[in-house]
Amino acid sequence: MTAPKTPLLDTVDMPADLRKLDKSQLRQLADELRDEMISAVGSTGGHLGSGLGVVELTTAIHYVFNTPDDRLIWDVGHQAYPHKILTGRRDRIRTLRQGGGLSGFTKRTESEYDPFGAAHSSTSISAALGFAVANKLNDTPGKGIAVIGDGAMSAGMAYEAMNNAEQAGNRLVVILNDNDMSIAPPVGGLSAYLARMVSSSEYLGLRSLASKLVKKMSRRVHNSLGKAEEFTRGMVTGGTLFEELGFYYVGPIDGHNLDHLIPVLENVRDAEDGPVLVHVVTKKGKGYAPAEDSADKYHGVPKFDVVTGEKAKSAAGPPAYQNVFGETLAKLADNDPRICAITAAMPSGTGVDKFAAAHPTRAFDVGIAEQHGVTFAAGLAAQGMRPFAAIYSTFLQRAYDQVVHDVAIQNLPVRFAIDRAGLVGADGATHAGSFDITYLASLPNFVVMAAADEAELVHMTYTAAEHDSGPIALRYPRGNGVGVDLPETPILLEIGKGRVVREGSKVALLSLGTRLAEAQKAADQLEAKGLSTTVADLRFAKPLDTDLIARLMRDHEVVVTVEEAAIGGLGAHVLTYASDEGLTDAGLKIRTLRLPDRFQDQDAPDKQYDEAGLNAPQIVETVLKALRHNTAGDDQRVEEARA
Ligand SMILES: Cc1ncc(C[n+]2csc(CCOP(=O)(O)OP(=O)(O)O)c2C)c(N)n1
Ligand SMILES: CC(=O)[C@@H](O)[C@H](O)COP(=O)(O)O
Ligand SMILES: [Mg+2]
């Protein structure tokens, strides 16, 4: 694929270069920026539609505002690729989301133009408010500018921030980028409200616009607006929700028309009062037909052919875990009217779309609102339903108090289907599902399971559905299963019981989750070295199968736990149990393999697991080291005895 011709963009490395251009050149610059972004994402894959929708907005913001002193915060950060290109990172844009490359989100360590890291949504207004207030207190120049999407606006955090924003005065600017899309079509009353605001807005002549604005904004703003005769699409002001929260509301305006955007943003920049919310209407996927025409607007794409839009096909293989979950749950719900499914704006990512296709009245997309989703599920459970809250591990972090306070303390049978458990590849540290075992298995009343393969996921989904005595979680990773046959009839697993998949005598590998495949490979390699190895799939991080663990500890010389989870997970529970029971007193060697105590950047998943030390060679090395340590210890003890 040849790179697009970008003569004007080639002259712009930083926003300072952009600001030297004449306004009349900005249209061409935006077109070239869009071409460059399409070309780059075609070669890397990544988030495409959202960035395409903010090409003009990105250009206008950097043209009008004094970034980086004005602190620009992109909500989620998945739309920030054009921003990266304009802020000195064009030379690395084709490394996006790859090992050692640019992050797919904003990241403080990457550039001074990324004042705040993101990837989870709806944090931008709070962060921008923090910058704004700090600058105000220190009498330092610079506003806080948050660009937040309509989907991200469904999260409570955005309102918590707006409720508190008045103190920033004119230092805070919120740009609501309304493309009427989340990853899936947006849901709920707020989305309908925004749609009504957009569809009912008039095209105002300047006079009526000015007379409306004079009531709302300072005279200075009003006067300078008088210069923008060409600005025809209305700045409509009304008794909006945002005004009730203390913002000057400006909009809706056409986010692809630079002749509208630039004067409006200039006025907002110069406004003496504030805070201001600018409602910008854009199109997700704008300017690239295959994206505009697709149902998901090319939210996230693999590599693709720029000319045809054809996406690289992944090799046919086992089904994705999320689909196994969604289809299994849909089948179970055929015979159980109490089962329902909840997703927080991730219907296809969690497989809840499969469930929704079969049981539309029992599938709930609550929007980006994980906290509400969990407590909503708690209410359903308390009323006798069997709710499955299907939430990515990383996003469930946001609802931790709801998990503890609304679910665990009340011992309510909410089923947590925790997708993207473990490392996730290109999305990197912000999306890794590292902590759920730690934060769930420490809670009284909780049952925590991890599926070793897609058949186990079927059994665990069924087991969770039938578990009415308290909260239960099942975790499984991003990606496809390992290729085992799916069972016709699911098995009801005994709570807190694991299984031995291979019996040996010297080394025992206690696996939880999909590292089981690596544990099996490691066992082959250990056997080849003459070390007889047991492999157990514990299935449950809580309650532990203490009978099995005690037996394996008594009968083996080395015991190694293996899990795709952070410190404080299975390994910690096994060690605690072993020391409580005195099982380590006789010199048993226990080692715990888990994710490292650092945030791992994006890379291919297998490389990430290598770096984490959770692939077969590292399991083998851990066992050998434990045995060598034994020998060294013995030698030393012999020496000491001799002395
Ligand atoms: C807390 C949280 N939940 C879910 C997600 C997954 N997610 C990423 S982008 C997105 C859609 C955001 O929609 P919007 O803010 O309108 O931005 P757009 O993609 O339309 O530009 C979702 C649900 C997330 N990043 N953070
Ligand atoms: C930006 C964001 O949070 C999502 O788009 C996320 O990248 C999706 O991840 P999956 O591809 O694992 O569904
Ligand atoms: Mg949107």
From TrEMBL:
Its EC number is 2.2.1.7. Pathway: Metabolic intermediate biosynthesis; 1-deoxy-D-xylulose 5-phosphate biosynthesis; 1-deoxy-D-xylulose 5-phosphate from D-glyceraldehyde 3-phosphate and pyruvate: step 1/1. InterPro entries: Dxylulose-5-P_synthase, THDP-binding, Transketo_C/PFOR_II, Transketolase-like_Pyr-bd, Transketolase_BS, Transketolase_C, Transketolase_CS. It catalyses: D-glyceraldehyde 3-phosphate + pyruvate + H(+) = 1-deoxy-D-xylulose 5-phosphate + CO2. Gene3D superfamilies: 3.40.50.920, 3.40.50.970. Residues 319-484 form the Transketolase-like pyrimidine-binding domain. Its cofactor is Mg(2+); thiamine diphosphate. GO terms for molecular function: 1-deoxy-D-xylulose-5-phosphate synthase activity; magnesium ion binding; thiamine pyrophosphate binding. It is an enzyme of class 2 (transferase). Catalyzes the acyloin condensation reaction between C atoms 2 and 3 of pyruvate and glyceraldehyde 3-phosphate to yield 1-deoxy-D-xylulose-5-phosphate (DXP). Belongs to the transketolase family. DXPS subfamily. This is 1-deoxy-D-xylulose-5-phosphate synthase. It comes from Alteripontixanthobacter maritimus. The gene is dxs.
